[in-house]
Every structure is written in C-alpha cells, then in structure tokens.
Design goal:
By secondary structure, this protein is of the alpha+beta class. It contains 3 helices and 13 strands. 19% of the residues lie in helices and 39% in strands.
C-alpha cells in the first residue's frame, strides 16, 4: 500500500507528465499558424461593402502646444460590379462631415450621394485614380459658407487616402512587389509604389508641378487578429522618408510654395475570407515651411494626422448617413 507521501509524489509526477504534453500541443498549433501560407492577394467577394473613415488633423505651435484640430468624416459605399476589374467598382459617398477648430459638425452637400468609379494610376487628364478634380472646386458647407482652399483640398485628399490604402496597399500590384507576395507571417517587402511621385495638383486650388514623393514604402505581414469577430491578416505599412511640394496662386502673379517632409505608417486589417479591408489605421507626421512673397521670413508648420477606416454593416452605415447635420 502506498504511503501518503508516495501518493503525493505519484500525482505530482503524473501532472508533470501531462502538462508538458498539453503545452507542446498548443505550441504546435501556434507553430503551424505562424508557418502556414496565406493568400492575401485573392479576389474580393462580390458583395457591397460599407465604410466609415475619420481623419484628424492636429496643428502644433513651435512650442509644441496643440493649437487647432480639424476632423473629416466620410461615409463610403462600394458596389463591386465585376471580378478583378478595379474600374467596375462603383463608389457612393453617403455623407461627408467637417468639424473644424472645435466647431459643431457641418456637412459638404456636394459630396452627398456622389457616385464615381476609379482607375489605376492616372487617367488621361493626369487625375489620380481618375477622380474628377472639378467636383472639389467651389465647395461650400451645409451652412452656406465657402470652404477655404486648404479645407477643400483635404476633402479631396480623403478620397485619395482611402483608395491608396484599400485599393493600392491592400490589393495585388501589377507593377511589382505587393501584398500578394506576403504569404507568411513575418514576411516583408518593398512595395512597388516606393519612391513614386504622384501629382497633387487640384484645379484652381493647388497648381500643377505640385507632388508628393513617397519614400521606401514597406509592407510587413505582422500576424492574425479578429476584427468584429472575423479573422484578419495584420499588414503593417511604412512610407519611409517622404516629402512634398505644393504650389498655390491665390491671386494672379502671387505664388506661394510649401515644401516639407512626411512620415506615415499604420496597419491594414484584411479579412482572410472575403479579402476586403476590415480596418485601416494611420499616423503621419508632417513638417513644412511656406514661403510667402512680400513677407519677411517664412511660415513653419508641424502637423500630426491620424486616420481610421472601419468596414461596418449596412444598418450602421445608413443610420449614420441619415443623420445629417
């Protein structure tokens, strides 16, 4: 008959024998997840998607104080009309809201129910994604006030940002390395858009010759997560050392030039089943200098931008679109 002390040792030995096997089993599951191959370049399912996008722009004083915050909110719907054809996706802006300098939110009527399609790169008129520049000229808010040129440009740039993340970084590239080359967790590539210099001119707001130059853009397959209960690949992106130059001519013969540097980074959460973006985050830091004729010295600016894009359901989207202030 076993003595009590022997019984204790026997149970302890049994537990020690059992626990490592259990842990080893879990470790094997983790190992298989980390070593598995994933297809991040597959076709998106043919189903309408609903998005909410918010951009926050914080301006800092030379002393580091936050002196102004502007918020841009966009509700966008995508109706895919055919497989593998970017230009066949029909986008509808349900609402575009502005919250400038802490004031109450107003909307931009010209954006409401605007339907458009996009193209890869530049169209024949040199417009990025083929987005019509004339749509953003002479914009006013729902109170009847004309939007300042910088604000109108940011409305336009919100669409550019959305498609850059969701239709360039998150979709396969035909120009070279892209998300399709990230088939294992831990993989990292230099994206084909690295060192690209897209124009940023916009009608009478920003003059031709203006551009944004990307740095060494990288994509990294960081892991797997759950977004709204759905499995999603986490793909981190980093722009590297980017820069830009913008020319404005507020009155004939008076040219204002702004030049600066930018560094943006964030994560894309891509649904592993539908291949649609579930969430995008971005943080950007911009330092610039503006030269104004007939002014002694220059205007220096430090700006922080953050973006969140969420793929939401139909009822959420329409509930927010129908609340128009």
């Amino acid at each position: 008959m076993l003595k009590p002390l022997q019984v204790t040792f026997t149970i302890a030995a049994a537990l020690l024998t059992f626990l490592p096997a259990s842990l080893n089993g879990q470790q094997e599951v983790y190992y298989q997840t980390l070593k598995s191959k994933y297809d991040l370049g597959g076709e998106r399912i043919q189903k309408t998607q609903y998005f909410m996008m918010e951009t926050k722009v914080i301006e800092y004083s030379p002393g580091g104080e936050r002196i102004n915050t502007d918020i841009y909110r966009m509700m966008l719907k995508c109706d895919p009309l055919s497989r593998g054809n970017l230009s066949a996706n029909r986008y509808t802006c349900g609402k575009f809201g502005l919250e400038l300098g802490g004031e109450s939110e107003v909307s931009v009527p010209a954006m409401k129910n605007w339907t458009y399609t996009i193209e890869e790169g530049l169209d024949e008129d040199g417009q990025v994604f083929g987005i019509d520049h004339s749509r953003f000229e002479g914009l006013s808010d729902s109170e009847g006030a004309n939007l300042p040129p910088g604000t109108a440009y940011m409305v336009y740039n919100t669409f550019i940002d959305f498609h850059s993340f969701c239709d360039v970084f998150a979709q396969p590239s035909d120009e070279g390395p892209g998300i399709q080359d990230l088939d294992k967790i831990g993989g990292k590539i230099v994206h084909s858009a690295a060192y690209s210099r897209p124009p940023v001119n916009l009608g009478g707001i920003i003059a031709e010759g203006s551009y944004f130059e990307n740095g060494r853009i990288t994509l990294e397959f960081k892991g797997i997560s759950l977004v709204s209960g759905r499995p999603a690949a986490i793909v981190g992106y980093d722009s590297g050392e980017s820069s830009y130059r913008m020319l404005m001519e507020p009155v004939p013969g008076m040219e204002i030039e702004t030049a600066g540097s930018s560094h943006y980074m964030g994560d894309i959460y891509k649904d592993l089943e539908t291949n649609w973006v579930r969430r995008v985050t971005m943080a950007e830091f911009v330092v610039s200098r503006t030269e104004v004729p007939a002014r002694q010295g220059s205007i220096e600016s430090v700006v922080e931008r953050s973006i969140i894009i969420e793929n939401i359901n139909k009822s959420q989207w329409y509930g927010m679109v129908e609340t128009d202030r």
